[in-house]
Amino acid sequence: MKKKIQFSLVYRDMWQSSGKFQPRKDQLERIAPVIIDMGCFARVETNGGAFEQVNLLAGENPNDAVRAFCKPFNEAGIKTHMLDRGLNALRMYPVPDDVRALMYKVKAKQGTNITRIFDGLNDVRNIIPSIKWAKEGGMTPQCALCITNSLEYYMNIADQLIAAGAEEICLKDMAGIGQPAFLGKLTKMIKDKYPEIVIQYHGHSGPGLSMASILEVCQNGADIIDTAIEPLSWGKVHPDVISVISMLKNEGFEVPEINMSAYMKARAMTQEFIDEWLGYFINPGNKIMSSLLLGCGLPGGMMGSMMADLGGMRTTINNVRKKNGLEEFSMD
Q1: What is the pLDDT, as a whole number, of residue 299?
Q2: Which one of 134, 231, 232, 326 has the lowest number of neighbouring Cβ atoms within 10 Å?
Q3: Which residues on neighbouring strands pair with residue 146, listed in sequence order?
Q4: Which residues, given as ranges, of the chain have pLDDT below 50?
């Protein structure tokens, strides 16, 4: 039997990458116990920037939503994690240092255990201060390497982040363009030098490399794999946990069993949330993989948001054209 692999459910990112939307607080409260009943997740991603924006749109307090969603996972011993943008914290623009420092204390109080700190350009100056503040706030700092291709470049960044106190490293392959062999080599380099550091792999499925990448990073020492569940897996999102468990189990890794009854219930509930709430605006094209994405390298979340925005703009344009007696505009 090979090493034990744990799984994380990226429930926030599933929605963002499919079309930037999120369930409401009451829906999150309903599905949390079902996710726990699946029995295969050691971690669940619970919040981030898009999460809060949609709560506000729904007239909800995002702090209440985070507390409500985290609470059952905390009680079940499942760790929760969030995504923060380093210099930007949970916003889309830079925020003052005191706000960044306070954010970690607040999120820890709300029940979030781990923060995934990333900078889109891998600028360690925007990440390193957050390591200190996360620890002071009572959270585990996990630092992201936003993936392209260069072993020496990423190893140098990992060295700096670990020296600054990072306890975990996330290989954040947000566009899914990381080549599997490269990701395996990078995982091994980090593990050989820092065997105590937890490595979590986050890879989107868009170009179709993610399953091979998961197998490579696990073969080379990765500890935790980010996964999704239907109907929001694959496409611009992450591989489905069922497929990942099957692949790794067949390869001899120690993986948890999944309660399929709970999985099917969570799958049906997620579809219900899509049909009832802002999921109406998820573009069907975001379920489709395309090898052409290897060229543009757009992150899954950016692709999902862009397609949702284009759909919304088309509706607005067509409403105006209809009023003026003009033919509707199509993106086909």
Answers
A1: 66
A2: 326
A3: 172
A4: none
In the chain, DSSP assigns E strands to 6-9, 43-47, 79-84, 114-117, 140-146, 168-173, 198-203, 224-227
CA 101/CA 139 separation, integer angstroms = 11
Other residues' Cβ atoms within 10 Å of the Cβ of residue 299 = 21
Cβ–Cβ < 8 Å for 198, 143:
no
Task: Give the pair of three-digit tokens for residue 199.
Answer: 């490595």
H/E element, 317: helix 300-323
Peptide bond into 195 cis (omega under 30): no
In 10 A of CB 88, how many CB atoms? 16
Beta bridge partners of 47: 82
Cα–Cα distance measured from residue 260 to residue 15, given in angstroms and rounded to the nearest whole number: 22
The count of C-alpha atoms lying within 13 angstroms of the C-alpha of 111, restricted to the half-sphere facing its C-beta, is 22
Mapped onto helix, strand or coil, the DSSP state of residue 4 is: strand
Give the closest residue to 271 by CA, choosing from 14, 9, 8. Answer: 14
Q: Which of 125, 129, 200, 210 is nearest to 170 (CA)?
A: 200
Integer Cα distance of 51 and 34 in angstroms: 20
Q: Rounded distance, CA 145 to CA 186, Å?
A: 11
Residue of 68, 75, 88, 78 whose CA lies nearest to 27: 68
Beta-bridge partners for 227 = 9
Q: Which residues pair with 203 in a beta bridge?
A: 173
- Name residue 199's amino acid: I
Measured distance CA(221)–CA(148) in Å, rounded:
20
pLDDT for 49-75, tens place per residue?
Answer: 655 677 787 888 988 999 999 999 999
Q: Can you give the pTM of this predicted structure?
A: 0.89
Contact in structure between 170 and 158 (CB atoms under 8 Å): no
| 45 touches 83 (CB < 8 A) | yes
The DSSP code for 23 is -
DSSP per-residue letters across 202-267? EE--TTS-HHHHHHHHHHTT--EEEEB-TTSSSTTS--BHHHHHHHHHHTT-B-----HHHHHHHH
